[in-house]
Amino acid sequence: MAVNLKLAEVPPREKRLKSVLSFHGSASELKQKSEDGTLSAKDRSFSQCGSCSSCSAFTLNAIIMDSAVVVHAPIGCSGDFANHNHGRHQGNRHRGLPSDNIKAICSNIQEKDTIYGASEKLRQAIREANERFHPKAIFVNTSCASGIIGENIDSVAEEMEEELGVKIVPIYCEGFRSKIWSTGFDATAHGIVSKLVKPATKKEDRIVNVFNFQGTHSFTGILNKIGLEPRYLFPFASVDDLEHMSEAVASTHICETLGTYVSAALEKEFGVPEVKAPVPYGISWTDEWLRELGRITDRSELVEQVIAEEHARIQPKLDDLRQKLGGKRVYILAGDSFVHSIVSSCRSLGMEVIGATAYHHDQVYDSDYGQINSLANMISFTGDVDNYTVCNIQPYEFTSILKDLKPDLLVVRHNHVATVGSKLGIPSFMVSDANLGIAYDGVIDLGYKLYETIRTKRMIETIAKHSKLPYTQWWSEQDPFYFEQGGK
Ligand code: SF4
């Protein structure tokens, strides 16, 4: 479905991208079924845990430097403030910035507000955010409660924008609208591109928009080598950076799940080309990504030279890592496209990917470019994955899978998942900084971290001996896909 910024809300991924939350088979089977239109969107009959779009939206807009966020919700929906505050402090430290807190307020919708309306509370919260933080823009993130009672956020935003003279950006991210929490990333992108981005008055022919979370600045080195500069977005960017995204020479990202909606929107509305290549994880994907950037920015000759130099430069370390990691059996568990990126990196390191779990699967993309289909790229560049599942972090499911497959290493994106690996005696590495594996140096950095993790085997086995999984005998005897198949 094409991006439509005229809509106040971005349609949820289930509708836009035919996203699904369950599948088991091989990666090529999933690709084939997605292309044929024969993949059924089955719901589990039991769900152990989940997340919500509101949290994902907040992940992207809570750390925009000179803005504030009003979460129009009951206080419980703001339980993630502390987590994001920690992220901000950590990010400030890495960037040498003074320590400060996130600038967020919850409007605290209560029971009687759901009967009489909560618009006045929203106005008060926006005034309070303006007075406390003096932001250049205020995001209003919605919630299940504000959505269910039909709060007219657009009209309050217009009214308050006039009163305060500050941009107010509604972000429609009610948790109940989508079971795919990545819809929240799209919601923040939709609000920013439709309300903040200005048409370009000049072109910055060295600037590349890099959509990421809040990781290290690992795009800088490789982009500088071809005469380009990254502008890291959205976390830790300024409102001014957001307003001028349209001036960039291209847009790229760390992960299709995070970055393709905003990239497609910028290309469609402002003519900023999206880099139509796999993301730079793994050697062959980095080559392709650089070549596409070279084509867009008219630097193809320089790019070929840089690729040759970089290959030669990292070869000794790559040989060393392939010798250390070659044939190690790895299982990978992460968000949809990020799984494919880690598979690409691990295969560049000579590891055997024995299985992977993606938290959801988008059957189509917001643009028609085949080059950004990360599942197809993973298969065509690096090969199939036989044990491939789609599962929105249901620990019982991947616990059974891991017990069965017994990998040498588990690579995950989120900390609470890594502990399951440790309890099973499997050395587990959490890619907490999603920018870690970027480009050629990223493959090497990731490789040495994975090697160090594998070397913890004896310690992890000791931990496992003293750990207990919470499942009874009954759970252990079930097929991992029992609830996917409708089990009671
Ligand atoms: S699912 Fe709804 S109620 Fe729960 S945290 Fe998200 S917005 Fe709040």
What is the CATH superfamily of the largest domain?
Nitrogenase molybdenum iron protein domain
Shape: globular
Largest sheet, if any? 6 strands, mixed
Strand arrangement across the biggest beta sheet: 1-11-10-9-12-13
State the CATH architecture of the largest domain.
Answer: 3-Layer(aba) Sandwich
Number of helices: 21
Kindly report how far apart the N and C termini lie.
36 Å
Give the rounded overall mean pLDDT.
95
Number of strands: 13
- The amount of helix comes to 40-55%
Please name the CATH topology of the largest domain.
Answer: Rossmann fold
What count of domains describes the coordinates?
Answer: 3
CATH class of the largest domain: Alpha Beta
Ligands in the model, by name, code or SMILES, are: iron/sulfur cluster
- Radius of gyration equals 23 Å
Q: Which regions contain 5 or more consecutive residues with pLDDT less than 50?
A: none
Instruction: Name the beta content range.
Output: 5-15%
Sheet/helix structural class: alpha/beta
Description:
- By secondary structure, this protein is α/β, with parallel strands linked by helices.
- The protein has three domains: 52-195, Rossmann fold (3-Layer(aba) Sandwich), CATH 3.40.50; 207-296, 3-Layer(aba) Sandwich (Rossmann fold), CATH 3.40.50.1980; 314-477, Nitrogenase molybdenum iron protein domain (Rossmann fold), CATH 3.40.50.
- Helix content is 47%, strand content 12%.
- The chain is built from 21 helices and 13 strands.
- It has helices at residues 13-16, 27-36, 53-61, 81-94, 111-116, 119-133, 144-148, 153-164, 183-195, 220-225, 239-243, 256-270, 283-297, 300-325, 336-348, 374-382, 395-405, 415-423, 439-454, 457-465, 473-477; strands spanning 22-25, 67-71, 104-106, 137-141, 167-171, 207-211, 229-233, 250-253, 329-334, 352-358, 388-391, 409-412, 428-430.
- The strands form three sheets. Strands 1-11-10-9-12-13 form a six-stranded mixed β-sheet, sandwiched between helices. Strands 3-2-4-5 form a four-stranded parallel β-sheet, sandwiched between helices.
- Helix 4 (81-94) links the parallel strand 2 and strand 3.
- Helix 6 runs parallel beside helix 8 and helix 14 (300-325) packs parallel to helix 19 (439-454).
- It is globular.
- It starts with 12 loop residues before the first helix and ends in an 11-residue tail after the last helix.
- The site of iron/sulfur cluster (SF4) has 9 residues, from loops.
- Iron/sulfur cluster (SF4) binds next to loops.
